[in-house]
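Run log, item B.
One chain of 276 residues. Sequence copied directly from the ordering sheet:
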Amino acid sequence: MRKIVFMVLIVCIVIGAQTLVFYRGIYSAPPMNICDIEDIQVSLHLPTEFIDVHGTGEGTVLIDSSHDNGFELEELNLLAYRIISRGYSIEYLEDSESLEERLANASAYIVISPATAFSWEEVEEIRNFVDNGGRLMLIDDPTRPAPESKDKMNTLSTEFGIVYRNDYLYNLKENAGNFRYIYLTDFEDNGITKNLNKLVFYTAGSISPSEKGVIFTDENTYSSIREVPGRYSPVVLTGSNVLAIGDLTFLTEPYNVLDNNQLVSNIADFLTDTSA
């Protein structure tokens, strides 16, 4: 019995010593800084009524579907409606079809987020199409399902002096509710930027060279690969008939907010050459 009492006493002494050394009293949590929800500012833009003023003509806009392109047909509904309302038809290039033959009957050609590269022969055919007055629009987007699509797009775009950078643009100071939703208010004066005051692009990538840019970011916008602020361009126009864009989402509903609607109409004018 004495041994048991002695062991219990030793244990109590050890526990007591540890308590005296390590115990710092009952934990009291610091007060929480609760943000007032009224102080949180989130920019919310809703589509508004838009009157599309345009001319009419006739021709065919060919959309590439032969390079495992990363888009769904319904994403182009808004642009397709604007094109059709100008008197033009829309057709799609499938895998088994001849690009040369289809371009011979087209007025404009659209390539969106290709996942397979363009061959040398295809690039030459598209170059001839552009040299003969055809309109070419290239669109890629950092959110497309094929992360290597920029490399594949560059197999075509570099023929026209355009390089898609493997980045996304972001702005921590002013944005549309997400740091990747950037505002654009800096425009060159041409048909693509007609009647534009403010756009919002949703996870756009930058395109080089910026000297060919027609729409620019502000000085607080960063590139994810450079991590320095600068005047980047997600929309480039080379010559009069090759347009490159680094965002697809702004073309789709319900993201046709602010002046995005006007930009979609300007793009439709570019593709159909039917500006009012």
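Observations after the first pass:
- Confidence is low (pLDDT under 50) at residues 37-42.
- DSSP finds six helices and 14 strands in the chain.
Flagged for discussion on Thursday.
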